[in-house]
Amino acid sequence: MRILALAVLVIFTFSTPVLAAAEIGQPFPVEISLKDHNGEVQTLETLRGDKGTVLVFVRSADWCPYCQVQLLDLRTDGAPITEAGYNIVSVSYDDPTLLKKFKDKYKFQYPMLSDEGSVVIKALGILNEDYAKDHFAYGVPNPTVYILGHDASVQAILAEEGYRKRPQVDVILETIKGLE
């Protein structure tokens, strides 16, 4: 009986996701190895710009109108961010085929990553817990923008209350300029 209890404790301990909240000045706490819109695996190393990466976590490029507007704003106004040396990358729970559909339809020029199963979203502690596991929106993040340096250290975290309001492109750019 004691061995069974120990086995259950070990399984529970190692199967429980560990939250890895990001902290300013620290390395990004989660390894990113996610499929992009083409189904190819990408990492922070393959995605970073000369100065770093802007990771934009959105609920869904497929069905969330607020996310779509945010992504289209990045498409239209994001050039100064990339000119500053930061690559823009979106992350959602969407399947890569849905991301490709959005990317092609709107000529979105930045990489889009699929966090199927919301592994990274959960590990960062940004999972929106308003949805039950059987709800279609289960797995969406609370919209958050992480600005990472070239070494993948967290330089800034931008988030708003709720899902309707998002950090605007000009706020992201001002934050980047403030880091220099």
Write the SSE topology.
Blueprint: H1 2-15, E1 33-36, E2 41-43, H2 44-47, E3 52-57, H3 65-77, H4 79-83, E4 86-92, H5 96-106, E5 112-114, H6 119-124, E6 144-149, E7 154-159, H7 169-179
Parallel strand pairs: 3-4, 4-5
Antiparallel strand pairs: 1-2, 1-5, 3-6, 6-7
Structure, described:
The chain has helices spanning 2-15, 44-47, 65-77, 79-83, 96-106, 119-124, 169-179, and strands at residues 33-36, 41-43, 52-57, 86-92, 112-114, 144-149, 154-159. The protein has 180 residues and is an alpha/beta fold. Strands 2-1-5-4-3-6-7 form a seven-stranded mixed β-sheet. The longest helix has 14 residues, at 2-15. The radius of gyration is 17 Å and the shape is globular. The relative contact order is 0.20.
Notable characteristics:
globular; 36% helix; 180 residues; alpha/beta; Glutaredoxin
